[in-house]
Amino acid sequence: MNFNYLGMDRFATDFGDGAVLLPIFGLSIILFAVFGWVRGAIVWGGLAGTALALLMTVKFIGLEWAYLSDAPGRAFSISGHVAAGSAIYGSLLNLLIFRKRKSLLACLPVPVFVASLFSYTRLALHSHTPAEVALGAILGVSVALISSRVLVPLPSRLIIPTFAIMLITIMFFHGDHSHTETLLQTQFSAWTPDL
């Protein structure tokens, strides 16, 4: 099934752009700290931040591998939309949904659904290969599961503000683009003039 005839692929994938996810990431950490859930701010921020750092590291490794191996075509690039989207949305939605600690299996459907949605749109738009979205899904779903398992339950005083922060940020930034991939490739080719 292809939603592209309605422009839905682009619309759906824009929810996973860094221009939307990075403000949700930062504002959620601030919100957790301001509302007194410092453990949540540190642990969730650390886990989501680690996922973002791993994402950038794998992207750099893909660029370096393409440079060193003289690989034809474009470099391997893990899907940031899939990895960051499933990590951030998957973990925050699980925190909002579950009021008691659940098994990893119970926490799995939300991040897998998010990863599947973003994987589909990235493939439909020919932005990534199946391997790139699969690696992104593994990274993002893993982070969402770990944070869901470690942090549930979200303090009840944070349910409405967390949902509001997500919704307002999405409404404000949806459709904007961070151009991270272009920036990475531009910066990398500046370091490696032969590329």
Topology:
Elements: H1 8-13, H2 18-34, H3 38-69, H4 80-97, H5 104-107, H6 109-124, H7 130-151, H8 159-173, H9 180-191
Structure description:
The protein has helices at 8-13, 18-34, 38-69, 80-97, 104-107, 109-124, 130-151, 159-173, 180-191. The chain has 195 residues and is mostly helical.
In short:
This protein has 195 residues and is mainly alpha-helical.
Tell me the helix content: over 70%
Distance between the termini: 37 Å
From the alpha carbons, calculate the radius of gyration and give it in angstroms: 17 Å
Mean pLDDT: 88
Number of DSSP-assigned strands? 0
Number of helical elements: 9
Largest sheet, strands/sense/barrel: none
Helix/strand structural class: mainly alpha
Query: What's the quaternary structure here?
Result: single chain
What are the defining features of this structure?
single chain, 195 residues, mainly alpha, 73% helix, globular
